[in-house]
Amino acid sequence: MKLCGHLLKAAGCLATVAGILFPGKEAMAQDSAAFGKIDSTLNLYLAALDGEPPEIQKENIDFIIDECEGDTATARHVALKIYDHFKSSPVMGAEAMAIYLTDTRFSTGEIRMRSDTELAGAELFAAFNRNSLIGMKAPQAAFTTAGNGTVLIPEDCQGTLSILYFYDTGCPVCLMENFRLKSEAENGMLGGVRARLIAVYTGQDELAWESYISEYLPESTDSLEVTNVWDPGYSSDFPRLYGVLSTPKMFLIGKDGTILGRNLDTEALKTLISRITSPPQITPGEMRLLVDVALGTYGKKDCKNVMALVDTFREQLGNASGMERTAFLEALYYDLRYRDTYPYKCGAAYLAKEEILSGTGQWDSSTINDAKVFTRLYDMTPLGEIVPDIPLPDMNGTLYSIDSPLTVIYAYSESCRRCEEEMPVARRLEKEYGDRVRFVYIDCDKYDVERFMLEYYDLSLLPAIYLLGEDKTLYAKYLDTEDLENLLGQILREPSL
Questions:
Q1: Which of these ranges, 33-42, 294-303, 399-408, has the smallest mean pLDDT?
Q2: Does the model's pTM come out above 0.70?
Q3: Which terminus of the chain is more exposed, N or C, with fewer CB under 10 A?
Q4: pLDDT single digits (tens) 2-20
Q5: In terms of Cα–Cα distance, which of 205, 198, 202 is closest to 246?
Q6: Is the dihedral of CA 319, 321, 325, 328 positive or negative?
Q7: Are the beta carbons of 342 and 476 closer than 8 angstroms?
Q8: Ordered DSSP codes for 270-331
Q9: Alpha-carbon distance 260 to 386, whole Å?
């Protein structure tokens, strides 16, 4: 459940990724050490992409690769890195992006793979998987039942949650999966939800198949209708359409014939069915309204009160089921995490550390990965500590050389819409408080942020505004210009300043 996009999509950050990943692109084309630096940063962004909708993933993948235009070596390195990430990712459905890269970059010859053999393998993988990706209609296929009837996919899945399970009688892994399926079916795996199991024998020995059905496969129950089918001669072309190069292979198909899950085992199938059939979850809009109203009762909007609100929700969810509790807190985390200012991000970091990264609960891998990335960014430059020194953009001195009661670091990108909206206010404040506040403007498209800032400053949401004291102690971060104006007004009212 992602509420406002992700690390790469946040308010103009897309354009900044290029400056972070590819500073001095021409100079680094042959520099393997530079590729190592790119990889460490790219890993963060790819982790943030895991679990996002395919269209968002495609948009960001294309953006990152296209930013290497004119630098063939870097573009190739980045494209292969992204391909490897999605091809080997444990996140269900991630292989769709590996196929997308194969179809749009590698097979077209735009970018070379490491070898012709690897390209052939990638194209074979794409050919056997592109027809049965999550969100697609299940490919049409006709199977024959043990009684010589016909089952049509996806037509016979309409109106019923369907499990399409490919197996072979000589497959030992299938035998283990059969036992799990049979046990779960007998013990109410579906929790009262009616579904259909279409078990597809992939072999050609009818006698072996008939004896196997009675001995090893689940039987129909009150909630699970079991239909055993096969396709002698492979006339339906199911190995290619469903990518059945090996068994077992399991899909979950929705009531409208759409593929909801692929490459499942019984445990993953059980979890997915539970999620799909659970009560409707709170929407992003509802969560935002709930947080705003509830936080309004606390008075001041600060880190302490947002953390208190998080604890209040956690306590109130004490009697909720594990999945309901997780779903609510996940929605709360993403609402706080993608808001612009510090108090909310403070609450998100607190919730991430106390719940998501604590080793308890039923959190999906994409949320865990997001929490790891976010808390790593959040923990950079803690409040109350002196920030690291960096060269000034004009290179006439460094941050520590500034002699001013207050310093504002304003990191932005020319292509960032939010930056464009906030910049006039920053310029006005600079003019108003110029004798007591020094503004340092950092254009992330031109400044070497990877070398000087990325290790210490969270630049995932632009503009990134930091307020420093005279000794360069960090007073505030995750500011917008409205918060900055209020904060400057409060501080500069003090006689000493």
A1: 33-42
A2: no
A3: C
A4: 322 333 333 233 333 444 4
A5: 202
A6: negative
A7: yes
A8: HHHHHHHHSPPPPPHHHHHHHHHHHHHTTSS-SHHHHHHHHHHHHHHTTTS-HHHHHHHHHH
A9: 50
